[in-house]
Amino acid sequence: MTFGKKATGAMASLFLLFGLSACDGGESGGGSSGESGGDVKLTMWAWPGFGLGDLAAEYEENNPGVTIEIQEADYADVHQNLITALSSGSGAPDISAVDEGYLERMKKNSDQFHNLYDLGAKDLEGDYLDWKWQQANNAAGDFLLGIPTDVGPMVMAYREDIFEKAGLPTDPTEVAAQIDTWEKYIEAGKKVKETTGANMIGRTTDLYQAVLEQAQIQYFDEEENFVAEESEQNVRAWELATSAQDISSNLERDSAEWGSALAAGDIATVLLPPWMMQNIKNAAPDTAGKWNVTFIPEGSGNFGGSFLTLPKQGKNQEEAYDFITWVMSPDQQLRIWSEANGPFPSTPGVYEDPSIQEYNDDFFNNPELGSYYAEAAQKIVAGHKGVMHDPVSQLFQDALISIEDGNATEKEAWDNVLTEAKRQLDRQ
Amino acid sequence: MILVQPLPSFSLAHLKTNKQSGGRNVELKKEGVEVSGKFTKSKKKYSTAQSERRSGYLFISPFFILFGIFGVFPLIFTAYLSFHKWDILGTKEFIGFKNYVNIFTNDPLFWKTVGNTFSIWIISTIPQLIAALLIAYFLNEKFLKGKSLFRLAIFMPNVTSVVAVALVFSAMFGSQYGLINYVLSVFGIEGINWRGSYFGTHVAIATMVMWRWVGYNAIIYLAGLQSIPRELYEAATIDGAGKLQQLWYITVPMLRPIIIFTVIQSTIGGMQLFAEPMLFGEGGQYQGLTMTLYLYQEAFTRFSFGYASAIAWVLFLLIIIVSLINLLITKKIQTS
Amino acid sequence: MNEVGQKAFPKISLYAFLTVSALLSIFPFYWMFVVASNTTSAINKFPPSILPGPNFIANSLAVFEEIEFFRALFNSILISTVVTLSVLFFCSLAGFAFSKLTFKFRDGLFIFLIATMMIPPQLSLIPNYMIVSQLGWVDTLQAVIVPAAVNAFGVFWMRQYISGAVPYELIEAARMDGCSNFRIYWNIVLPAVKPGLATLGIFTFMGTWNDFLWPLVVLKDSSVHTIQIALRTLNDVYSTDYSLILAGTFLATLPILVVFLLFNKQFIAGLTEGAVK
Q1: Bridge partners of A384?
Q2: CATH 3.40.190.10 occupies which residues in chain A?
Q3: pLDDT digit of tens for each residue in chain C (277 aa)?
């Protein structure tokens, strides 16, 4: 019976493989923070794009006995894995990156992390942007959850050719002077729409987020009360966004269609943190040289940025602390930016460096691009966010989309979003 | 017209009564033993019964051991959590039935996701199973050339990874720059708002689901068709039955256990629909939000783990009820 | 019945139907290759390009540069093969017991087994992670292999298939010859259900190959990454390079096609021999 023989062979190889895989597992398992003979292996979780690979290798060279293993996973996966490991009590790495969107949740459970002030972080405070440093502090200011990595100061990229056709200025200084409030931005957008047919912005939610980020109180006050209904900034952001429906393409940022719209020249401005430059380049390479960059109206705003934290489950906090403070020191952050093509530094001390001041990109046609980002970074006001900031923000954005889709009136959407937000907060 | 009785087959209600084989008078040769006619098991010796019992428990034990390790604990843990408020990292606070009360009295969004899930499930499953059966039936035709090629083709959607499927489909179902609307516009037809309307989003997600699973079910049916003796079809052809009559009077009844399998499986799959809506996007009105996606968000973006656990249990019960209803309907159709 | 009805169902329309179905099935796969062989920007044109471009090799090389493609491929092959063999064996064994053996609580246990398929899997992640980490299996391949070694779906399928494809006569005859239950399973049932096994085999292999929800929770070290986890790390948070991702995905698909063709032989074998003859 040939089938029987084949199957027997298969079963034999099955058990063989079981044995084999068990051996494999034995070797690679348990290596999360093995310490033997003074050698320390640091594990670090991060998502792609930090640009730390070369620096980690250099650190290993200068610190014999220390090896650094950066385990990369998708952005959402890193956070989910970290939460899984923390809640089940084992498996967290020595070092984990945490995005600002998850930061408040981690701060609320800060007993799971080392207080970096205990390891000497107080001395480093002056190196970092003040607002960014404060984000990683608890309310009392005596617990520091993480060392800041990058920041996402927003500037406004605009299509020179479209602005010119619409009779708007094209010089960055003049544009910033003429469009210095959001009302004027919308006004300019209407002009663009009338004369060229292009939309001013990808989606009203982009505008909403940018405006919201410009004030300290957004959805929650300092006592963690839900104040979205009264919050001046939220109300203003909402009203501006709803009044911008006619000049919006109603396309999700970074979706395939958004790329098509950019490539086709149907979107005139993009509110742009440094990390998003690559998205535009990928999405619409043919528009190179047609863009310019200036400040967004009414100051600046932050979009994105992370921290390096030390979960308590890790065993080598001293060594881990030494590494993260070195790799996120001003000098190294500058190198991440200039050598590894990484994200924008959170250390203002290096902003005067030529590699930032003179940073430019042919795609954006602005020889002072880097200095715009540096200035924008220092104008940022840190918003006070609660643990539920992001889910609530998502609700407001979805409500705006439902208005743009024509499925709800402004009043309905506003009432619905407040009711739903309160429901979700009640369950917390 | 010939009459074909269903094979001994699975049905939850008649598990025990289906022992006697139906009128399948095919001559069987195996291991040199020639067998024909019917057997009944009534004269079974006691020792056989005992050995069957022993083997039976032994043979099914791997599943139950594994389930005991990896299945029971999550169930109990989830049930325990559902009576608590827990943000996954902090301490658990016992709140009794409050989570369940909330689901039934104060969570319209959850019930919206129930509606979405059912709507997407119905418009994807029914055409999907019918198309799969037809494709399998045709692929089983004796005269068909290039069987392997066709089989490989309908299998392709299964190997295209979900992420890639989402990318391709989101490019096709774009409201403004999508391929389908572009083609429609060539014919002067107004595009469909795939992303901003209930109809568009449900159809788009259902199409994705259908596209991914028709081939899968067809291959399942095809495997089932292999066990139907050709003689039945030959006899039917001699009797003058047309192809579609053969499909209805021979194939469907003979495939009964397999059809029940696919119905149960696509019910479960449909109720637990997750990947496609997540990748397509839920939309501003949550018209693409399904039950398990909502559960996932409650747990991993809002960190209301207790509430998510309560939803999980409600879902579990809901799926059981729907599966039972489906099973009854399937049985009705096939025995009528 | 009527001859005309039979003729009105011409072969050509059957071929047409199957060809259309085949083209629809293949199109997204084809387009995947189109994207993978172009640059990301080429697909963002409107209307998009529909012919393969020249960049497939360049994109593939970039994938090999970014991730440990072949190590991940090896892990995936190992995991999928072991899981598939184990599932084929244990599920067909249990399926045989559920369909052809009589024992107390059989039907109750079977209904229970089906009910376990209805548990939403998302919430099992954390409790299961707790178990696996208690066992010390985090970052080992058995963390993925063992929980998948036998599943309700496979048992259900084999139970259904065996009950339709293996008549009691065969079992009785073998029993009269004095065969043990395992001998009956091995010598009579298995050969009779080859198409069912082939189907279960290909779907198990493919499902294991494509799974990422559970592996990404337990396999963090790049040395144990499966191909799907490795491909996910191409997903830069800030900018998505579709060409790169789809080039990697396309390459990762080829092994499953090979496996399908291997199992395909079994389908054909089932076809020509007939299951029970």
Answers
A1: A217
A2: 35-151+304-357, 155-303+366-426
A3: 444 444 445 788 888 889 999 998 988 888 888 888 988 767 666 566 778 888 899 999 999 988 899 999 999 999 999 999 999 999 999 999 999 999 999 999 999 999 888 888 877 888 899 899 889 999 999 999 999 999 999 999 999 999 888 888 888 888 888 889 999 999 999 998 988 999 999 999 999 998 888 998 899 888 999 998 888 888 766 667 788 888 998 999 899 888 888 887 776 554 444 444 3
Which other chains touch chain B, taking contact as 3+ CB pairs less than 8 Å apart? A, C
In degrees, to the nearest 5, what angle opens at C-alpha A391 toward C-alphas A388 and A395? Answer: 130
A198 closest CA partner among A246, A155, A156, A240: A246
Chain A residues in contact with B106 (beta carbon < 8 A): 423
Pair (C118, C198) in one structural domain:
yes
- Residue C175 and residue C79 share a domain: yes
Q: What is the mean pLDDT of residues A198-221?
A: 95
Identify residues of A whose CB sits under 8 angstroms from chain B CBs: 80, 83, 86-87, 105-106, 108-109, 112, 249-252, 255-257, 260-261, 264, 387-388, 390-391, 394, 398-408, 420, 423-424, 427-428
How many whole angstroms separate alpha carbon A153 and alpha carbon A379?
9
Residue whose entry in the numeric block shows the structure tokens 């084949």: A6
Fold classification of A35-151+304-357 (topology level): D-Maltodextrin-Binding Protein; domain 2 (3.40.190)
Residue C58 and residue C74 in one domain? no
pLDDT of B171 above 90: no
Q: Higher confidence at residue A32 or residue B56? A: B56
- Domains of chain B, each with CATH number or no CATH: 110-335 (1.10.3720.10)
The answer to whether B211 and C24 are in contact (CB under 8 A) is yes
Which residues are within 8 A (CB) of B234 and not within 5 positions of it... i.e. 6 or more apart? none
B contact set with A (CB within 8 A): 85, 87-90, 99, 102, 106-107, 109, 167, 170-171, 174-178, 193, 195-197, 281-286, 298, 300-304, 307
Phi-psi region of A265 (alpha: psi -120 to 50; beta: other; left: phi over 0): left
Q: Are C62 and C78 in the same domain? A: no
Q: Strand A39-46 and strand A35-36: pairing?
A: antiparallel
Would C75 be classed as within a structural domain? Answer: yes
Cβ contacts of C228 on chain B, cutoff 8 Å: 161
- Fill in the DSSP letter of residue A150: B
CB burial class (10 A; 0-12, 13-18, 19+) of residue B163? buried
Q: Which chains touch A (3 or more CB pairs under 8 A)?
A: B, C
Range of the domain at C219: 68-226
Contact A10 C85 (CB under 8 A): yes
Q: What is the ipTM of this complex?
A: 0.86
Q: State which fold the A155-303+366-426 domain adopts.
A: D-Maltodextrin-Binding Protein; domain 2 (3.40.190)
Residue C211: per-residue pLDDT: 87
CATH of the domain at C200: 1.10.3720.10
Nearest CA in chain B to C35: B168
Q: How many domains does chain C have?
A: 2
Chain A residues closer than 8 Å to B283 by CB: 398, 401, 405
Q: B interface mutation test: which of C90, C101, C262 has the most B CBs within 10 A?
A: C101
